[in-house]
Amino acid sequence: MPRVAHTTNAEPLPAPRPGRVSGGDGRTPEAPVDSGQVVVITGLSGAGKSQASKLFEDLGYYCVDNLPPELLERFLALREAEPERYARVALVLDIRAGDPAVAIDRARRTLVPDGIALEVIWLEASDATLVSRFSETRHRHPLQTRSGIQAGIAEERRLLGATRDLATQVIDTSGLSIGQLKERLFAVVPRETAAAELVVDVVTFGFKYGLPLEADLVFDVRFLNNPFYVEDLKPLSGLDTPVRDYVLGQPAAGRFLELVVELLELTIPAYRAEGKAHLTIALGCTGGYHRSIALAEELAARLGRVAQASVAVFHRELER
């Protein structure tokens, strides 16, 4: 499974950078440590739970696939005993081990007194999409009988009705590519950030693959010379030093970054004042592999010095 994202500070999740305000509540180093995050990934078979689990794993979460619901409380007890190791966990619970609704509800009640919110992400898709996916992969639906795949899907919807009602986020993956699914998940991934900070995602993409659905601001960086046409640079990505030097060495690149940072220094405080908590900035070039990546990395580094912003970078086409 290709990696889909990484943070600019090489940590699993964005963290306050030196010199940035981490909060306006006057907290001191003696303040309580973050209690972490618990995410349950559930939903219909074939709706994308494996891809979602991989995303959380890339973000530094401890992931467990197909955890029996009966073991959920025991795992939370283990997490409490080893809080540093299991601070951020993502657990896949689904029909393979039975309806997890009771276990999820009980776990939520257990975590509330500790101030930990249980994020439950439900993934679903249309019957036609699920049938097509099972046919393409030749996997067997866990509830499939002689009546066929569609009957198994209908039964799964019925059995997991109570679980769906417990979801805090519902994502319909019908018609979504893996890249688009990842974008949707980025928007609901819990982030460790101070209340005063705006979560800023810098997303790179290729115009030939379509615009990111979640983008608030889109910048076209195809005005720069393309490393694709330089023989030694073509196989490299914007994360490689030769490509980075080639792109950032162009005078227009430096001026572009200055103007974008100036724009965001002006607008980020205003976004926060208006109650906006999340901003997605998309940088696109032809294939999303050279110019946009090099610029996004530099832009994120510069934005990391802007107060009231927690920055992460996601490269949509990096391993396409």
Account of the protein in words:
With 320 residues, the protein is α/β, with parallel strands linked by helices. The chain folds into two domains: 37-188, Rossmann fold, CATH 3.40.50.300; 198-315, no CATH class. Helix content is 35%, strand content 17%. It has a five-stranded parallel beta sheet, sandwiched between helices. Strands 7-8-6-9 form a four-stranded parallel beta sheet. α2 (72-81) links the parallel β2 (62-64) and β3.
In short:
The chain is an alpha/beta fold and 320 residues long. It has ten helices and nine strands.
Question: Which terms would index this structure?
Answer:
single chain, Rossmann fold, 2 domains, four-stranded parallel sheet, 9 strands, disordered N terminus
Give the secondary structure arrangement, pairings included:
Elements: E1 37-43, H1 49-58, E2 62-64, H2 72-81, E3 88-92, H3 101-111, E4 118-124, H4 127-137, H5 149-159, H6 161-165, E5 169-172, H7 178-188, E6 198-206, E7 217-220, H8 241-248, H9 251-273, E8 278-285, H10 291-303, E9 309-315
Helix pairs in contact: 4-5, 8-10, 9-10
